[in-house]
Specification:
This protein has helices at about 1-10, 15-105. The protein is an all-alpha fold. The protein starts with a helix and ends with a helix. The model has no long low-confidence stretch (mean pLDDT about 90).
């Protein structure tokens, strides 16, 4: 009855009230749908953030592997340089020994 008194006082018809109720119902439905869409978007965003975090971790691991590889290349290169120097030194000694031997053969 209170609603009826208000309708009479402000001059609103029953059809206008029904139309407003329908509009309110539509708004409530849209609000619920928006809430569901928002929840879905938030879920997708959470999944994407998790993927981004995983990718960042993968990149970090790859950078570490790259650095380790570069260090190993330096080590191998250094070892190869040392071996090459040793081989050159041994070759030089062998040439010296060969020359000494040839000189001794030539004297005899």
């Amino acid at each position: 009855q209170h609603i009826e008194e208000l309708k009479e006082r402000i001059g609103v018809s029953d059809s206008a009230v029904e139309e407003l109720k329908e509009q309110l119902s539509v708004c409530e439905t849209k609000s619920a749908e928006s809430g569901q869409e928002l929840a879905l978007v938030q879920e997708q965003l959470g999944e994407r953030n998790a993927k981004v975090c995983q990718l960042e971790e993968d990149v970090k691991q790859l950078e570490e592997l790259k650095q380790q590889s570069e260090e190993r290349v330096k080590e191998v290169t250094s070892e190869s340089d040392v071996k090459a120097c040793q081989m050159l030194e041994e070759h030089s000694q062998l040439q010296q020994q060969q020359l000494v031997a040839e000189e001794q053969v030539a004297r005899n």
